[in-house]
Structure to design on (203 residues):
């Protein structure tokens, strides 16, 4: 077999994979058009929470609070929870952009808190489970939250509910907890956008 034939043979799987990913992206984009149009029509670009617009403002507010340790983590968690209303409509936003907008779903809310804690020097890790249960909404869903390590302790931290505090969350984990990674980030990004569009259509 010639070198050209070997190259073409090796290239085929990559072409197929690229085509599959492109199809998923295009189909998801089309599916999310209705809720994206609602977002554009509302014209919501940035929200203000007591002078807090973006991640850097949030970090400054956390530092100005004078808190340390777990109280600081709880303060940052509450800040993200208060700033970001749960939304199905802005699935394409990065966590930073979603925080500025004041809207987002679990990955965006958790991602925003992760960035704040990172800038505060707090050791945190994004984790996910493919199946969790939210008793307050009688909802089964995948979910993303943080594991925060501080003072020799590891606690669950989730900004998705205002009643959450470090070590206390309102959801129950029904499947294995796994570390967030680039592969799951890709599939979750498009999968969550599709699911959010479906949920928006039913809401």
């Amino acid at each position: 077999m010639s070198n050209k034939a070997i190259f073409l043979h090796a290239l085929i799987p990559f072409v197929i994979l690229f085509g599959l990913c492109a199809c998923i992206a295009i189909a998801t984009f089309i599916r999310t058009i209705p809720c994206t149009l609602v977002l554009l029509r509302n014209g919501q670009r940035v929200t203000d929470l007591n002078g807090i617009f973006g991640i850097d403002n949030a970090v400054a507010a956390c530092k100005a609070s004078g808190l340390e340790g777990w109280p600081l983590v709880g303060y940052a968690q509450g800040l993200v929870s208060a700033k970001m209303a749960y939304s199905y409509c802005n699935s394409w936003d990065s966590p930073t952009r979603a925080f500025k907008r004041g809207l987002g779903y679990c990955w965006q809310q958790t991602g925003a808190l992760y960035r704040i804690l990172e800038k505060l020097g707090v050791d945190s890790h994004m984790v996910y489970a493919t199946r969790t249960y939210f008793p307050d909404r009688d909802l089964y869903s995948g979910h993303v939250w943080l594991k925060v390590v501080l003072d020799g302790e590891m606690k669950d931290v989730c900004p998705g509910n205002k009643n959450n505090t470090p070590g206390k969350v309102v959801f129950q984990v029904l499947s294995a907890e796994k570390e967030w990674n680039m592969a799951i980030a890709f599939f979750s990004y498009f999968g969550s956008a599709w699911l959010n569009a479906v949920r928006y259509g039913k809401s």
User: Anything to note?
Assistant: The radius of gyration is 19 Å. The first strand starts at residue 85 and ends at 86. Residues 32-202 form a domain with the C8orf32 fold fold (CATH 3.10.620). The helical segments are 3-31, 33-42, 55-64, 69-83, 95-101, 106-119, 182-202.
